Amino acid sequence: MIEFQQVSKAYGGAKVIDELSLTVAQGEFAVLIGASGSGKSTTLKMINRLIEHDSGRILIAGEQIRSFKPEELRRRMGYAIQSTGLFPHWTVEKNIATVPELLKWKPTRIRERVTELLELLGLEPALFRGRYPQQLSGGQQQRVGVARALAADPEVLLMDEPFGALDPITRASLQAELARIHRLSGKTIVLVTHDIDEALRLATRIVMLDHGRIVQAGTPAELLAHPANDRVAEFIGCGDVGIKLLGLRTVADAMRVGEGGEAVEGVPIDAGSSLREALSVFVARRVEVLRVVDEQQHTLGTLHFADLLKAPP
Questions:
Q1: Please, what's the b/e burial string for 108-142 (b: 16 or more CB within 10 A of its CB; e: otherwise)?
Q2: How far apart are CA 63 and CA 122, in angstroms?
Q3: Are 304 and 275 in contact (CB under 8 A)?
Q4: Up-side HSE of residue 213: CA atoms within 13 Å toward CB?
């Protein structure tokens, strides 16, 4: 879907991207991580030509990005940033409709799309479509920013530290929403973050950059279990790798299906919860067994504390 072929970018003679070669497959959720100055935001912005690369080639769906006018290219890609970039004097509906209006969609289609996206992101259309950005909380503004990025059903969604300024609870909620959107839509997403926990939670593949070069790329489990070098291990946080690995698996992966959960007392745990969350529940409640339920609260089975020690599939 997106391909970098020996791409370089320099400022004042100093290379910030150094012959980068990278492929992001269609439907992949790729997360670029690295320390400040590693080149991750520059890499992202070169995809939609907010920053022009100096050498090499960047392709989208097999075509060089320079074969498109910048504005045409950007209309094919959603773009969400930390500050949301919402127009303060426009309503939520008009902000979300920005690109569809540029593409000359019919008003009825635009209104239907705004309604669909507000519902998808947990904002009641009747309450929010007529509000202005200053009437929204930070988390609500960020949801509108994501809705705007998705409005024209883009092929690619680019996100630059989209949740960095939010409080932990709101941030976790929006991460869950984004993961759900990716599962439902199968869109190609490229996200930049410096937060390794965010990367582990969202990515199907993590790409770690250092001085404009790829240090390691792989699934979250691969980076946790087999860091390429000490620098990767340090960035990931080698002291709690076991806990982070639990965060990659769900209760459904390890539960005992059909086992008599009805006899287990206490509040159940959702099958979609991570095993890391389950560990916290075990410790907090000081129990050995949890009842597992689905979204409709139907009992599916049980999870035993010992199940957390099972090798991943």
A1: eebbebbeebbebbebebeebbeeebeebeebbbb
A2: 36
A3: no
A4: 5
pLDDT at position 312: 58
Number of helices followed by number of strands (H, E) in the chain: 14, 14
From the list 180, 181, 133, the residue with the least C-alpha distance to 153 is 181
Q: Reduced to 3 states, what is the DSSP secondary structure of residue 293?
A: strand
Place of tokens 């009641």: 124
The angle that helices 107-120 and 138-150 make with each other, rounded to 10 degrees, is 130
Q: How many angstroms separate the first and last alpha carbons of the chain?
A: 29
Q: How many CB atoms lie within 10 A of CB 67?
A: 10
Q: Which DSSP helix (H) or strand (E) runs through 146? A: helix 138-150
Q: What is the rounded distance in angstroms from the CA atom of residue 252 to the CA atom of residue 273?
A: 8
Which residue has better confidence, 259 or 64? 64
- Least Cα distance to 294 among 257, 276, 275, 269 occurs for 269
List of residues 6+ apart from 288 with CB closer than 8 A: 282, 304, 305, 306
| DSSP state for residue 85 in the 8-state scheme | -
Region of 136 (left: φ > 0; alpha: ψ -120 to 50; beta: rest) is beta
The pTM for the full model equals 0.84
pLDDT classification of 51: cutoffs 50, 70, 90? very high
Report the share of the chain in percent with pLDDT over 90.
64
Mapping DSSP to helix (H, G, I), strand (E, B) and coil, where does residue 35 land?
A: coil
Sign for the CA dihedral angle at 23, 26, 28, 33 comes to positive
Q: What is the mean pLDDT of the chain?
A: 91
Strands 63-64 and 213-218, by their bridges, are: unpaired
Helices (H), the chain: 40-47, 70-75, 92-96, 98-102, 107-120, 125-128, 138-150, 168-185, 196-202, 220-225, 230-236, 241-246, 251-254, 275-285
Provide the pairing of β-strand 205-210 with 29-33. Answer: parallel
Lookup: tokens for 76: 């094919």
